[in-house]
From TrEMBL:
Keywords: Lyase. This is PBS lyase HEAT domain protein repeat-containing protein. Gene3D superfamilies: Leucine-rich Repeat Variant. GO terms for molecular function: lyase activity; oxidoreductase activity.
């Protein structure tokens, strides 16, 4: 099986075999990343959590490839502080189990000076998890660590702690470091979220350097604030295609990050800004997200936005993308796609949806959602064909949904909840 299939099927044992035995470092690295992402599935009857942690601890210490050791440490981070402390204890010879948090912080701060970069990485990650303000200075002093893998995790730790103290030092490194480190620094500034941290991101969003602009608009998507919307909308007109696309992805991400109290206001602001943007700058990236992204939150928000901003020029392309999304594995994404389709009626959409409903080979979930849309946009043709369809379909669910659509179209039908 492929790594994707192993992840989908939650095959811990085979993933560990790849991590420990593959001759390909990319496969070992990806196996470690997947094991980290499956943390919630470890334990109980699924697979012994301790065995996964043991395998990751071993890879963190012994793998020949830097990128595999780094991925294993990040995976341990996802398993929690106890997993990180197991690695730190084995590599340093110190038992951290019974030590108070403030003492652990001191031990980990000393670990930032260790000879082995993996221990410095784990120490920085652990300090970020503990979140004590009194370790911020030790982390800031290590921002010039010779290993970029360590610098990335120090920036990530400072973002987790959210103290305003390191903002000047982080801002300085944002202009000087390697690309991957600069990305983590920008994320840290967004997570800290103070006025001076955000001011730095806003300033560099207009930097002469395309790479810096892209990093800034990427990080601004983590804010979930109305203020970030205007900046990202402006970046949709950037001369760089990569900056424009990153800005669109960030706007979609921002919908997920907005706090509940500001969610409605942020959504209205994003829709308003995108309606004023050039259609190709706003609509094409949303279609691309639905076609290519595997991120559930991104797909949900892209489906929701398309129905509200797609214009006449892009209506057909938007309809195509949304129809394909009706069968999405995520129920909320498929519902958003159906609702957006109902806002984009016109062209041959009714005919296409009727053909889909009557095609026994197509996914039943897709056909259920298509019936919902037809209940919103259908006309005489839908009434006639659906009347015949409900009489001959063998699916109780499709019949029920068909009657619901007919009732909304003024035909014979029974009341039923949406997406029943």
């Amino acid at each position: 099986m492929t790594l994707f299939e192993l992840e989908r099927n939650v095959e811990f044992e085979q993933l560990i075999e790849h991590l420990e035995g593959s001759s390909n470092s990319n496969i070992r690295r990806r196996s470690a990343e997947i094991l980290g992402s499956l943390e919630s599935e470890a334990g109980g009857n699924r697979y012994p959590r301790d065995e996964v942690i043991d395998a990751l601890v071993d890879a963190s210490q012994t793998d020949d490839a830097d990128e595999v050791r780094a991925a294993a440490i990040d995976a341990l981070d996802q398993y929690g502080q106890d997993a990180l402390e197991q690695f730190i204890g084995e590599i340093s010879g110190q038992d951290l189990d019974e030590i108070a948090e403030w003492k652990k912080a001191k031990v980990l701060a000393r670990g930032l000076q260790a000879d082995r970069p993996e221990l410095r990485m784990a120490a920085a990650t652990g300090l970020g998890r503990i979140g004590e303000d009194n370790v911020v200075r030790a982390l800031v002093n290590q921002l010039d660590d010779p290993d970029p893998r360590v610098r990335k995790r120090i920036a990530r730790a400072l973002g987790r702690i959210e103290s305003p103290e390191p903002v000047p030092a982080l801002s300085k490194r944002l202009h000087e470091d390697q690309y991957g480190v600069r990305v983590e620094i920008a994320y840290a500034l967004a997570d800290i979220g103070t006025d001076n941290a955000l001011r730095e991101l806003v300033d560099v969003a207009d930097d002469e350097d395309e790479t810096v602009r892209r990093i800034a608009v990427d990080a601004l998507g983590r804010l979930g604030s109305v203020e970030a919307v205007e900046i990202l909308a402006g970046a949709l007109r950037d001369d760089s295609d990569s900056v424009r696309r990153t800005a669109m992805f960030s706007l979609v991400q921002l919908l997920s990050e907005a706090p509940a109290s500001a969610s409605h206001k942020v959504r209205e602001k994003i829709v308003g800004e995108l309606e004023q943007a050039n259609a190709s700058e706003a609509i094409e990236p949303l279609i691309e997200i639905l076609d290519r992204s595997s991120e559930t939150a991104q797909r949900r928000n892209a489906a929701w936005l398309l129905g509200r901003i797609a214009n006449e020029e892009y209506r057909q392309a938007a309809q195509d993308a949304l129809i394909d999304t009706l069968a999405d594995e995520d129920e909320m994404t498929s519902k958003f796609a159906a609702t957006s389709l109902s806002l984009l009626e016109g062209g041959d959409l009714e005919q296409r949806l009727l053909d889909l409903v009557e095609d026994d080979i197509r996914d039943e979930e897709m056909r259920v959602k298509a019936l919902f849309v037809l209940g919103k946009i259908g006309g005489e043709q839908s009434r006639n064909r659906l009347s015949s369809f409900v009489d001959r379909t063998e699916s109780d669910r499709l019949r029920k949904r068909g009657f619901s659509a007919l009732s909304k179209l003024g035909g014979a039908g029974a009341m039923s909840g949406d997406f029943a």
